[in-house]
Amino acid sequence: MLSGLMKNLSKKDAVQLMEIAYRTLKGTTEEDIKSVVTEFKKGFYFDSAFLCNLTVTNKNVKPILHSDPIFSFKTFDLPNEFSSQYLQQRFISIDPVAEAFLNTRELVDYQELVRKNPSILKNPAHQLTIDFNLFNVFSYGTFSLNAKEISGFSLYYKSRKLKANPRIITILKFITPFMTELYEKTLGLSKRPLISPITRKEYEVLKWLKEGKTSWEISMILNIGESTVNFHVTNIMRKLNATKRTQAVAVAIQNKLIEF
What we know:
CATH class of the largest domain: Alpha Beta
CATH architecture of the largest domain: 2-Layer Sandwich
Structural class: alpha+beta
Helix content: 40-55%
Number of domains: 2
Radius of gyration: 18 Å
Number of helices: 12
CATH topology of the largest domain: Beta-Lactamase
Order of helices and strands: HHHEEHHEHHEEHHHHH
CATH superfamily of the largest domain: Transcription factor LuxR-like, autoinducer-binding domain
Largest sheet: 5 strands, antiparallel
Distance between the termini: 9 Å
Number of strands: 5
């Protein structure tokens, strides 16, 4: 896992990130989440953070944000007034960051999003962030396989200059599945039964996914075809109710299928 992170991070960053991820595995309460996020902020500075979960109650309504999903969230170092307005105005239904992530399932760089979609400047949810001097947001998330459970982790910055560089992308994509697993655990959503047991070969592939290896690299290590590796990865994600490789690894570690 360490070697995979060090492709875009210093050894110090990578070690700190792994320590924080390990702490999420031990957490069970909201106080634990607060403690982990505080530690995360010390090593990887940001101004505030936002964890949320959506449970989709009617998948026939499009877009999903208009389906009146069950919504919960937790903020860190954001004023209570921000949280109150966001909740009371039901801004999740018009939040451009949430909409962008749901559409792409990729990391959202808010400044880039606004540049491509200037109409966002008129969005009340956008205006709320500006009112609190939060000019930049990077956001990522996780989906359950049936897309009924969606969790997100966002980092807010007051600086307009920060860009989604490889370091930020690597940090957020790695830590988000661990943070959302911890948050879902406090909501009673995390323990999802396996659809079927992990096979021996899938276990071998999963261990190398944890190390950040690509399908091609795993195929060389295990002396099997790359398409075979991808077949196993697809089965692993299906069985772990995950849609991303990093999410599958986080779920597997959380459920003690592999060691950290």
